[in-house]
Model the fold of this input.
Amino acid sequence: MLRIALPNKGRLAEEALELLELAGLAPEARHTRSLQTTLGPGAFDAIFVRANDIPEFVADGAAHFGITGGDLVAESGRALETVLDLGFGKCRLAIAVRDDSSIHAAREIEPGTRVATTFPNVTRRFFENAGVAADIVPISGAAEIAPYLGVADIIVDLVSTGSTLRMNGLREIETVLESSAVLITRPGVDADPDAARALRELRTALQSVLRARDQRYLMANIPRSALPRLRDILPGINGPTIVDILNGGDHVAAHAVVPSSSVYRVIAQLEDLGASGILVTRIERLVP
Done:
């Protein structure tokens, strides 16, 4: 059985399991102390490990696939392929200085400036590419306090909303990288026909859930005379599907997929056309 490495705790773990369940790959065991289980109907052997270790597990062949943060993949420096951006766990790795600092861009940082970070490899590569001779100080956490303890002058840390930086008197000046959860594998794994097929099926299943999240399925009874104008209102994937209604007379049924953000406007436009029986429902999966 092919193996997939999953985060063992935190929000990343929760959202990864939720996505897998929606894709039909619910774990057989979800006990917090379980380190191994089966996903779906014997589709994968899943192991639960630290998100930081997943790039290493996949790169070394201990797991065929893995779900972890893109920032952790970048920090590992291992040769890995990102198969799919899963969209959750969004954050950015940013450079931050004290509020009273005169620095507003990375290029203004003086040579020898101490930079504290839990991402020393990514940070070092960034400053080298920027031509800044910074002194990288690796730490294990709580980077925000480093400038006040004299550990470093500047930090490079993960930022979501920026509120933690502001609470600690820090100001963001530049983004090192953008990150979100990703599905990864190692190069060449698809040379194995079984692994290639499993990866293709896994990617399709996850994509179908992600694609459906911001879409809705809409159905309505439409006067036949309004059909020429309907295409502009319900473009759908390949246009609306029109179905004759038994004893429907001068009405037909229109079905289409619409973005959830536009449902309010679409309903109003359909009513202007004389539509009735409008029904909007969520979509579990969508494969175009």
In short: The chain is about 30% helix and 30% strand. The two ends are 29 Å apart (CA to CA). The mean pLDDT is 92.
